[in-house]
Amino acid sequence: QVQLVESGGGLAQAGGSLRLSCAASGRTLSTYAVGWFRQAPGKEREFVAAFTDTGSSTSYADFVKGRFTLSRDNAKNTVFLQMNSLKPEDTAVYYCAAAAPYYSVSYYSVIDIYDYWGQGTQVTVSS
Question: What is the pLDDT of residue 52?
Answer without folding.
Answer: 87
